[in-house]
Design brief:
Order of helices and strands: HHHEEEEEHEHEEEEHEEEEEHEHEHEEH
Structural class: alpha+beta
Strand content: 25-35%
CATH class of the largest domain: Alpha Beta
CATH architecture of the largest domain: 3-Layer(aba) Sandwich
Oligomer: single chain
Catalytic activity: N-succinyl-(2S,6S)-2,6-diaminopimelate + H2O = (2S,6S)-2,6-diaminopimelate + succinate
Bound molecules: zinc ion
Pfam family, one: M20_dimer
Protein name: Succinyl-diaminopimelate desuccinylase
Cofactor: Zn(2+); Co(2+)
Helix content: 25-40%
Strand order of the largest sheet: 1-2-6-3-7-18-8-17
CATH topology of the largest domain: Aminopeptidase
CATH superfamily of the largest domain: Zn peptidases
Number of strands: 19
Largest sheet: 8 strands, mixed
EC number: 3.5.1.18
Protein backbone atom coordinates (compact mmCIF):
# COMPACT_ATOMS: atom_id res chain seq x y z
CA UNK A 1 0.00 0.00 0.00
CA UNK A 2 0.97 3.63 -0.36
CA UNK A 3 2.51 5.23 2.67
CA UNK A 4 1.49 8.76 1.60
CA UNK A 5 -1.95 10.13 2.32
CA UNK A 6 -4.52 9.79 -0.46
CA UNK A 7 -4.84 13.25 -2.10
CA UNK A 8 -8.36 12.34 -3.28
CA UNK A 9 -10.06 13.60 -0.12
CA UNK A 10 -13.85 14.01 0.23
CA UNK A 11 -13.55 17.80 -0.39
CA UNK A 12 -11.52 17.18 -3.57
CA UNK A 13 -13.93 14.47 -4.79
CA UNK A 14 -16.86 16.86 -4.37
CA UNK A 15 -15.40 19.38 -6.87
CA UNK A 16 -14.63 18.18 -10.42
CA UNK A 17 -12.10 21.00 -10.93
CA UNK A 18 -10.14 20.23 -7.75
CA UNK A 19 -10.40 16.54 -8.57
CA UNK A 20 -8.99 17.07 -12.07
CA UNK A 21 -6.04 18.92 -10.58
CA UNK A 22 -5.40 16.26 -7.94
CA UNK A 23 -5.47 13.51 -10.60
CA UNK A 24 -3.10 15.46 -12.87
CA UNK A 25 -0.69 15.83 -9.96
CA UNK A 26 -0.39 12.05 -9.52
CA UNK A 27 2.11 11.19 -12.27
CA UNK A 28 0.82 8.26 -14.37
CA UNK A 29 2.73 7.94 -17.61
CA UNK A 30 1.74 4.66 -19.33
CA UNK A 31 2.95 1.57 -17.41
CA UNK A 32 3.36 3.69 -14.26
CA UNK A 33 -0.29 3.77 -13.20
CA UNK A 34 0.02 1.88 -9.90
CA UNK A 35 -0.01 4.95 -7.62
CA UNK A 36 -3.02 6.60 -9.27
CA UNK A 37 -4.91 3.29 -9.45
CA UNK A 38 -4.24 2.68 -5.73
CA UNK A 39 -5.70 6.11 -4.92
CA UNK A 40 -8.77 5.63 -7.14
CA UNK A 41 -9.38 2.10 -5.88
CA UNK A 42 -9.16 3.20 -2.24
CA UNK A 43 -11.76 5.91 -2.88
CA UNK A 44 -14.15 3.55 -4.68
CA UNK A 45 -13.87 0.81 -2.05
CA UNK A 46 -15.01 3.33 0.55
CA UNK A 47 -18.26 4.09 -1.31
CA UNK A 48 -21.11 1.99 0.12
CA UNK A 49 -23.30 2.04 -3.03
CA UNK A 50 -20.55 0.61 -5.28
CA UNK A 51 -18.97 -2.80 -5.77
CA UNK A 52 -15.35 -2.44 -6.78
CA UNK A 53 -13.02 -4.80 -8.66
CA UNK A 54 -9.44 -4.47 -9.83
CA UNK A 55 -7.39 -6.18 -12.55
CA UNK A 56 -3.75 -5.10 -12.77
CA UNK A 57 -3.94 -1.27 -12.85
CA UNK A 58 -7.51 -1.16 -14.09
CA UNK A 59 -10.31 -0.62 -11.60
CA UNK A 60 -14.05 -0.98 -12.10
CA UNK A 61 -16.85 -0.03 -9.73
CA UNK A 62 -20.56 -0.43 -10.33
CA UNK A 63 -23.94 0.21 -8.85
CA UNK A 64 -26.22 -2.81 -8.53
CA UNK A 65 -29.64 -1.20 -8.25
CA UNK A 66 -31.53 -3.55 -10.58
CA UNK A 67 -32.21 -0.79 -13.13
CA UNK A 68 -33.39 -2.01 -16.57
CA UNK A 69 -30.43 -0.36 -18.32
CA UNK A 70 -26.74 -0.16 -17.52
CA UNK A 71 -24.32 2.47 -18.85
CA UNK A 72 -20.53 2.66 -18.68
CA UNK A 73 -18.49 5.78 -18.00
CA UNK A 74 -14.92 5.00 -19.02
CA UNK A 75 -11.61 6.83 -18.89
CA UNK A 76 -7.96 5.92 -19.10
CA UNK A 77 -5.68 6.76 -16.16
CA UNK A 78 -2.42 6.99 -18.11
CA UNK A 79 -0.83 9.90 -19.94
CA UNK A 80 1.78 10.34 -22.63
CA UNK A 81 5.32 11.08 -21.33
CA UNK A 82 5.82 14.31 -19.35
CA UNK A 83 7.21 17.26 -21.27
CA UNK A 84 8.09 19.89 -18.68
CA UNK A 85 4.35 20.10 -17.92
CA UNK A 86 4.12 18.40 -14.51
CA UNK A 87 2.73 19.16 -11.98
CA UNK A 88 -0.28 21.27 -13.00
CA UNK A 89 -0.32 25.07 -13.05
CA UNK A 90 -3.25 27.51 -13.17
CA UNK A 91 -3.54 30.56 -15.41
CA UNK A 92 -6.89 32.28 -15.07
CA UNK A 93 -9.66 29.93 -16.24
CA UNK A 94 -7.13 27.41 -17.60
CA UNK A 95 -5.47 24.43 -15.93
CA UNK A 96 -2.20 23.41 -17.62
CA UNK A 97 -0.41 20.11 -17.30
CA UNK A 98 0.11 16.64 -18.74
CA UNK A 99 -3.26 14.85 -18.79
CA UNK A 100 -5.44 17.92 -18.12
CA UNK A 101 -7.20 17.48 -21.48
CA UNK A 102 -6.35 13.85 -22.29
CA UNK A 103 -8.01 12.83 -20.10
CA UNK A 104 -7.94 13.34 -16.35
CA UNK A 105 -10.67 15.99 -16.57
CA UNK A 106 -12.86 13.23 -18.07
CA UNK A 107 -11.73 10.74 -15.43
CA UNK A 108 -12.67 13.36 -12.82
CA UNK A 109 -16.26 13.42 -14.18
CA UNK A 110 -16.63 9.69 -13.65
CA UNK A 111 -14.94 9.58 -10.25
CA UNK A 112 -16.93 12.59 -8.97
CA UNK A 113 -20.23 10.97 -10.04
CA UNK A 114 -19.20 7.55 -8.70
CA UNK A 115 -18.77 9.04 -5.25
CA UNK A 116 -21.59 11.59 -5.17
CA UNK A 117 -24.48 9.94 -7.06
CA UNK A 118 -25.94 7.10 -4.98
CA UNK A 119 -29.15 6.55 -6.97
CA UNK A 120 -28.51 7.15 -10.70
CA UNK A 121 -31.40 6.51 -13.07
CA UNK A 122 -29.43 3.75 -14.82
CA UNK A 123 -27.11 1.27 -13.24
CA UNK A 124 -23.64 2.69 -13.87
CA UNK A 125 -20.29 0.99 -14.38
CA UNK A 126 -17.35 3.30 -13.71
CA UNK A 127 -14.31 2.02 -15.55
CA UNK A 128 -10.81 3.44 -15.05
CA UNK A 129 -8.14 1.74 -17.12
CA UNK A 130 -4.45 1.60 -17.77
CA UNK A 131 -2.24 2.00 -20.82
CA UNK A 132 -4.48 3.55 -23.46
CA UNK A 133 -1.67 5.66 -24.88
CA UNK A 134 0.55 2.72 -25.90
CA UNK A 135 0.24 -0.53 -27.86
CA UNK A 136 -3.09 -2.31 -27.50
CA UNK A 137 -1.58 -5.41 -25.85
CA UNK A 138 -1.19 -3.28 -22.68
CA UNK A 139 -4.58 -1.54 -22.96
CA UNK A 140 -6.65 -2.15 -19.81
CA UNK A 141 -9.90 -2.16 -21.78
CA UNK A 142 -8.55 -4.85 -24.09
CA UNK A 143 -7.18 -6.88 -21.16
CA UNK A 144 -10.44 -6.77 -19.18
CA UNK A 145 -12.51 -7.56 -22.29
CA UNK A 146 -10.50 -10.80 -22.43
CA UNK A 147 -10.21 -11.66 -18.70
CA UNK A 148 -13.51 -10.33 -17.27
CA UNK A 149 -15.84 -9.52 -20.18
CA UNK A 150 -18.81 -9.46 -17.75
CA UNK A 151 -17.36 -6.31 -16.14
CA UNK A 152 -18.14 -4.41 -19.32
CA UNK A 153 -21.65 -5.68 -20.04
CA UNK A 154 -23.83 -2.62 -20.66
CA UNK A 155 -26.36 -1.06 -23.00
CA UNK A 156 -24.37 2.07 -23.75
CA UNK A 157 -20.96 3.58 -22.99
CA UNK A 158 -19.56 7.09 -22.76
CA UNK A 159 -15.81 7.38 -23.26
CA UNK A 160 -14.64 10.56 -21.54
CA UNK A 161 -11.94 11.42 -24.08
CA UNK A 162 -11.48 15.11 -24.98
CA UNK A 163 -14.20 16.45 -27.32
CA UNK A 164 -14.45 20.04 -26.02
CA UNK A 165 -17.87 19.42 -24.54
CA UNK A 166 -19.69 18.10 -27.58
CA UNK A 167 -20.64 14.55 -28.54
CA UNK A 168 -18.35 12.86 -31.02
CA UNK A 169 -20.13 9.69 -32.02
CA UNK A 170 -18.71 6.42 -33.31
CA UNK A 171 -15.33 6.54 -35.02
CA UNK A 172 -13.77 5.93 -38.40
CA UNK A 173 -11.85 2.77 -39.19
CA UNK A 174 -8.24 2.75 -40.30
CA UNK A 175 -6.34 0.46 -42.67
CA UNK A 176 -2.72 0.38 -43.72
CA UNK A 177 -1.59 -1.31 -46.89
CA UNK A 178 1.44 -1.51 -49.14
CA UNK A 179 1.14 -1.27 -52.91
CA UNK A 180 4.18 -2.79 -54.61
CA UNK A 181 5.39 -2.16 -58.13
CA UNK A 182 7.98 -4.45 -59.64
CA UNK A 183 10.50 -4.08 -62.47
CA UNK A 184 13.81 -5.48 -63.54
CA UNK A 185 17.27 -4.28 -62.52
CA UNK A 186 19.70 -3.05 -65.15
CA UNK A 187 22.72 -0.75 -65.35
CA UNK A 188 21.56 2.82 -65.55
CA UNK A 189 23.81 3.31 -68.57
CA UNK A 190 21.77 0.69 -70.44
CA UNK A 191 18.40 1.32 -68.83
CA UNK A 192 16.47 -0.12 -71.81
CA UNK A 193 17.53 -3.58 -70.62
CA UNK A 194 15.52 -3.10 -67.38
CA UNK A 195 12.10 -2.02 -66.15
CA UNK A 196 11.94 0.88 -63.68
CA UNK A 197 9.71 0.02 -60.68
CA UNK A 198 9.79 3.62 -59.38
CA UNK A 199 8.39 4.88 -62.68
CA UNK A 200 5.74 2.20 -62.27
CA UNK A 201 4.68 3.87 -59.02
CA UNK A 202 3.62 6.96 -60.99
CA UNK A 203 0.27 5.43 -61.88
CA UNK A 204 -0.36 4.56 -58.20
CA UNK A 205 0.33 8.16 -57.19
CA UNK A 206 -1.82 9.48 -60.05
CA UNK A 207 -4.77 7.42 -58.81
CA UNK A 208 -4.24 8.75 -55.27
CA UNK A 209 -4.05 12.33 -56.52
CA UNK A 210 -7.27 11.95 -58.50
CA UNK A 211 -9.09 10.08 -55.73
CA UNK A 212 -12.23 11.73 -54.39
CA UNK A 213 -12.80 10.68 -50.80
CA UNK A 214 -16.35 9.96 -49.66
CA UNK A 215 -18.31 12.02 -47.17
CA UNK A 216 -20.86 9.85 -45.46
CA UNK A 217 -23.70 10.85 -43.14
CA UNK A 218 -24.76 8.20 -40.64
CA UNK A 219 -27.42 8.93 -38.01
CA UNK A 220 -26.90 12.64 -38.65
CA UNK A 221 -23.12 12.47 -38.14
CA UNK A 222 -20.71 13.36 -40.96
CA UNK A 223 -17.69 11.19 -41.57
CA UNK A 224 -15.03 12.34 -44.02
CA UNK A 225 -12.80 9.64 -45.43
CA UNK A 226 -9.18 9.95 -46.50
CA UNK A 227 -6.93 7.87 -48.74
CA UNK A 228 -3.28 8.86 -48.71
CA UNK A 229 0.24 7.72 -49.40
CA UNK A 230 2.16 8.01 -46.14
CA UNK A 231 5.51 6.66 -47.34
CA UNK A 232 7.40 5.49 -50.40
CA UNK A 233 10.48 3.33 -50.61
CA UNK A 234 12.52 2.23 -53.60
CA UNK A 235 15.96 2.28 -55.15
CA UNK A 236 19.02 0.07 -55.15
CA UNK A 237 21.97 2.35 -55.96
CA UNK A 238 22.62 5.53 -57.92
CA UNK A 239 23.56 3.59 -61.07
CA UNK A 240 20.92 0.81 -60.95
CA UNK A 241 17.43 0.75 -62.44
CA UNK A 242 15.28 -0.20 -59.43
CA UNK A 243 13.26 -3.41 -59.53
CA UNK A 244 10.99 -2.68 -56.53
CA UNK A 245 9.00 0.24 -55.17
CA UNK A 246 6.64 0.15 -52.19
CA UNK A 247 4.02 2.80 -51.52
CA UNK A 248 2.52 2.85 -48.02
CA UNK A 249 -1.17 3.66 -48.00
CA UNK A 250 -3.38 4.78 -45.10
CA UNK A 251 -7.14 4.61 -45.57
CA UNK A 252 -9.48 6.24 -43.01
CA UNK A 253 -12.96 4.94 -43.69
CA UNK A 254 -16.46 5.75 -42.46
CA UNK A 255 -18.12 3.22 -40.15
CA UNK A 256 -20.61 2.06 -42.81
CA UNK A 257 -17.67 -0.01 -44.09
CA UNK A 258 -16.09 -2.91 -42.23
CA UNK A 259 -12.44 -3.90 -42.74
CA UNK A 260 -13.38 -6.41 -45.47
CA UNK A 261 -15.33 -3.71 -47.31
CA UNK A 262 -12.44 -1.28 -46.89
CA UNK A 263 -9.99 -3.81 -48.32
CA UNK A 264 -12.29 -4.56 -51.27
CA UNK A 265 -12.45 -0.83 -51.98
CA UNK A 266 -8.64 -0.50 -51.91
CA UNK A 267 -8.33 -3.44 -54.30
CA UNK A 268 -10.73 -1.67 -56.65
CA UNK A 269 -8.82 1.63 -56.49
CA UNK A 270 -5.48 -0.10 -57.07
CA UNK A 271 -6.74 -2.71 -59.55
CA UNK A 272 -3.85 -4.20 -61.50
CA UNK A 273 -1.34 -3.60 -58.67
CA UNK A 274 -0.06 -5.88 -55.97
CA UNK A 275 -1.67 -4.75 -52.67
CA UNK A 276 -1.03 -6.14 -49.19
CA UNK A 277 -2.97 -5.07 -46.08
CA UNK A 278 -0.61 -4.71 -43.10
CA UNK A 279 -2.93 -3.41 -40.37
CA UNK A 280 -6.65 -2.81 -39.94
CA UNK A 281 -8.97 -1.58 -37.21
CA UNK A 282 -12.73 -1.47 -37.59
CA UNK A 283 -14.60 1.77 -36.98
CA UNK A 284 -17.77 2.10 -34.90
CA UNK A 285 -21.23 3.22 -35.93
CA UNK A 286 -22.57 6.22 -33.98
CA UNK A 287 -25.06 4.00 -32.10
CA UNK A 288 -27.30 6.89 -31.05
CA UNK A 289 -30.63 5.07 -31.20
CA UNK A 290 -30.70 3.50 -27.72
CA UNK A 291 -32.87 5.28 -25.12
CA UNK A 292 -29.81 5.99 -22.92
CA UNK A 293 -27.98 7.57 -25.89
CA UNK A 294 -31.02 9.68 -26.81
CA UNK A 295 -31.35 10.94 -23.26
CA UNK A 296 -27.65 11.69 -23.18
CA UNK A 297 -27.94 13.79 -26.36
CA UNK A 298 -30.89 15.64 -24.83
CA UNK A 299 -28.83 16.40 -21.72
CA UNK A 300 -25.95 17.74 -23.86
CA UNK A 301 -28.39 19.77 -25.97
CA UNK A 302 -26.12 20.09 -29.02
CA UNK A 303 -25.96 18.05 -32.22
CA UNK A 304 -23.39 15.23 -32.31
CA UNK A 305 -20.61 15.10 -34.87
CA UNK A 306 -18.73 12.08 -36.23
CA UNK A 307 -15.42 11.10 -34.60
CA UNK A 308 -12.72 11.04 -37.26
CA UNK A 309 -9.82 9.53 -35.31
CA UNK A 310 -9.85 5.95 -34.08
CA UNK A 311 -10.66 5.64 -30.34
CA UNK A 312 -11.56 2.97 -27.83
CA UNK A 313 -15.27 3.42 -28.71
CA UNK A 314 -14.43 0.88 -31.41
CA UNK A 315 -13.44 -1.63 -28.71
CA UNK A 316 -16.83 -1.12 -27.05
CA UNK A 317 -18.57 -1.44 -30.41
CA UNK A 318 -16.71 -4.71 -31.02
CA UNK A 319 -18.27 -5.96 -27.75
CA UNK A 320 -21.72 -4.95 -29.02
CA UNK A 321 -21.92 -1.84 -26.82
CA UNK A 322 -22.74 1.41 -28.63
CA UNK A 323 -20.39 4.12 -27.39
CA UNK A 324 -19.61 7.78 -27.94
CA UNK A 325 -16.93 10.26 -26.89
CA UNK A 326 -17.66 13.16 -24.55
CA UNK A 327 -15.11 15.08 -22.52
CA UNK A 328 -14.17 18.64 -21.51
CA UNK A 329 -10.69 18.79 -23.01
CA UNK A 330 -9.83 20.19 -26.43
CA UNK A 331 -8.73 17.22 -28.58
CA UNK A 332 -6.36 19.52 -30.50
CA UNK A 333 -4.30 20.01 -27.32
CA UNK A 334 -3.92 16.35 -26.41
CA UNK A 335 -0.26 15.24 -26.27
CA UNK A 336 0.98 18.86 -26.55
CA UNK A 337 3.47 20.43 -24.17
CA UNK A 338 0.99 23.24 -23.39
CA UNK A 339 -1.93 20.86 -22.89
CA UNK A 340 -4.64 22.53 -20.81
CA UNK A 341 -8.35 22.49 -20.04
CA UNK A 342 -10.88 25.26 -19.44
CA UNK A 343 -12.38 25.17 -15.96
CA UNK A 344 -15.81 26.16 -17.31
CA UNK A 345 -15.76 23.14 -19.64
CA UNK A 346 -15.13 20.92 -16.62
CA UNK A 347 -17.98 22.46 -14.64
CA UNK A 348 -20.41 22.43 -17.60
CA UNK A 349 -19.60 18.84 -18.58
CA UNK A 350 -19.93 17.56 -15.03
CA UNK A 351 -23.33 19.29 -14.79
CA UNK A 352 -24.40 17.69 -18.10
CA UNK A 353 -23.50 14.21 -16.91
CA UNK A 354 -25.25 14.84 -13.61
CA UNK A 355 -28.40 15.99 -15.47
CA UNK A 356 -28.31 12.81 -17.51
CA UNK A 357 -27.75 10.37 -14.65
CA UNK A 358 -29.65 11.98 -11.78
CA UNK A 359 -32.97 10.31 -10.94
CA UNK A 360 -35.91 11.61 -13.01
ZN1 LIG B 1 -6.96 9.83 -24.32
Amino acid sequence: MRDMQNPLTPEVLADPVALTRALVDIESVSLNEKAITDCVEEVLRGVPHLRTYRHSNTVMARTELGRPQRVVLAGHLDTVPLNGNFPSTMRGDLMYGCGTSDMKSGVAFALHLAVTLADPRYDVTYFFYEAEEIESRYNGLTLVSQSHPEWLQADFAVLLEPTYGIVEAGCQGTMRAIVTTRGERAHAARSWHGVNAIHGAGEVLRRLGAYEARRVTIEGCDYREGLNATGIHGGVAGNVIPDLCEIEINYRYAPDRDPAGAEAHLREVFAGFDLRVTDAAAGAAPGLDSPAAQEFLAAVGAAPIGKLGWTDVARFAAMGIPALNFGPGDPNLAHHKDEHVELTKIRDGAATLHRWLAPA
